[in-house]
Design goal:
This protein is 15% helix and 36% strand. The protein has two domains: 62 residues, 3-Layer(aba) Sandwich (Aminopeptidase); 41 residues, no CATH class. The relative contact order is 0.19. The strands form two sheets. A three-stranded antiparallel β-sheet has the order 1-2-3, with helices on one face. A hairpin with a 5-residue loop joins strand 4 and strand 5. It is of the alpha+beta class. It is elongated, with a radius of gyration of 17 Å.
Length: 104
């Protein structure tokens, strides 16, 4: 039986140089941009690790718009719907819609 992956926050000790999911843009991101983004506090990357090998990852990136800077077309004082592009580890792309209440 194969070892179950464990989830860990990406660290310098993880070797991302050999990660290959078959999608070059995703390979490039984890090899060159994930850790610097984490150090700059613009993203957080979590890796699935088997032994010492990264077998997958997920990156969270936060963005925001100040209420005062939001365009009028967004309907200030209403619920906002924000489209988010999602790319899974196999390179499949999809869109998800988040709803943000005026209370937040």
């Amino acid at each position: 039986m194969s070892e179950k992956p464990r989830i860990a926050k990406l660290a310098r000790s993880h070797d991302a140089s050999r990660f290959d999911c078959g999608h070059e843009a995703l390979n490039h991101f984890i090899r060159l941009h994930a850790l610097p983004g984490q150090r700059a506090s613009i993203s957080q990357t979590y890796v699935a690790v088997v032994g010492e090998t990264i077998v997958g990852y997920h990156t969270l990136v936060v963005g925001n718009v100040l209420y005062e800077d939001a365009p009028e077309r967004l309907g200030k004082g209403e619920t906002w719907r924000v489209a988010v592009k999602v790319i899974d580890p196999r390179g499949n792309e999809g869109m998800r819609v988040l709803q943000i209440s005026e209370r937040y």
